[in-house]
Predict the structure.
Amino acid sequence: MDKLLIQGGVPLSGDVAMSGAKNAALPILCACLLTNEPLRLKNLTQLNDIATMLRLIGQMGVTVTMEGNDSLILDAGGLNKPLAPYDMVKTMRASILVLGPLLARCGEARVSLPGGCAIGARPVDQHIKGLQAMGADIHVEQGYIQARATRLKGARIFTDMVTVTGTENLMMAATLAEGETIIENAAREPEVVDLANCLIAMGARISGAGGDRIVIQGVERLHGATHSIMPDRIETGTYLCAAAATGGEVRLTHTACDYLDAVIDKLREAGCEITCGPHEIWLKAPARLKAVSLRTEPYPAFPTDMQAQFMAINCVAEGTAIIRETIFENRFMHAVELIRLGANIRIDGSNAVVTGVPHLDGATVMATDLRASASLVIAGLVAQGETLIERIYHLDRGYERIEEKLSRLGASVRRVK
Ligand code: EPU
């Protein structure tokens, strides 16, 4: 298993380009299942999760044609097997995103129930409830969601909580349903809007994406389209944190401050200078950051996917911060690893109290999930001496060529086998 070896203490500096958003790409790859015409996607990042999703839809009969490194054409004209097997779903929960499109296009789907997850139980009851409201006959048998519907019918759906992939699944299903679907309490995440834009380019009739009430008028069929995936706001936020924590100065390109208000606000509060260009962000960090408290909430508030990275920067900031995680019940796994590097963190239920220390010391630590891994990388970049991060397959799920990008910014980071 690969590990990441970091020699800490170098302030990051220079320019680096951000990749396309993983969490926009995953649902958009599933959108190809809704049509028998080709869907061309650009700015697709090369990540393990993307490869898993391509394998998953590939075994359903979708043809994938690569066009260079970050562009491809998906053709679901030959879709013949509406099945998502356990082996694939267990490695990537986002596989559940095939459920809505398969049911809408094929009238049936058999999708393994995702199991538990390192950051929380993460049930999919809202996905099922919404599809049932649209007339689907759904039951769970031998660990699989078995779904059938001759044609889905428009419905008014109210989700119990804000769910990102739930909103995406239901929005995709509703594009081919008969009549109007209204999703109330919809997720407002930018990735939902990117998916809606792709679906609209495919002929879907969707309004309100980006708000908490999305209205979809079902159509008989969707057609092919070309869509460019939005920049990854969480990758961008992670590199901003890495630069901030190391006292660096960087320019991130192929990205923008749009969608990062809550994160940029906190970085400014921590003492960073940030300038936003149309397709770039420049950050200059102070010699020492100030501690910043935060509370994770659905968009547009502070994202749970940036909580771990901010915990890392608070570890070396001046003062004490309180971090409250409200989205997932078990998303503080990185804290114990950060403590191994010398951090002062106390966990109390869904609160973490982080008191900054003057410096961290390198050690061997273990990555437990994607964003936890990112926080360990940031901590390793600041720590004195050498940090070895084990189980970095988590990182490879969500950060494209991370060691290469960090090296471009002057960090001493090496992948070891
Ligand atoms: N929830 C339910 N029932 C459902 C759906 C969700 O109880 O049917 C709960 C979850 O357990 C959680 C909360 O609702 O407590 C919110 O979960 P949500 O459904 O929004 O999460 P998700 O759609 O599974 C996406 C991202 C996550 C990100 C969350 C929150 C993708 C592929 N994944 O997950 O990304 O943390 O939204 O913003 O879009 C990551 O990239 O590292 C990552 C985990």
Remarks:
- The first strand starts at residue 3 and ends at 7.
- Residues 23, 26, 93-94, 120-127, 161, 163-166, 304-305, 327-328, 370-371, 398 surround EPU (CB under 6 Å).
- The chain has 14 helices and 24 strands.
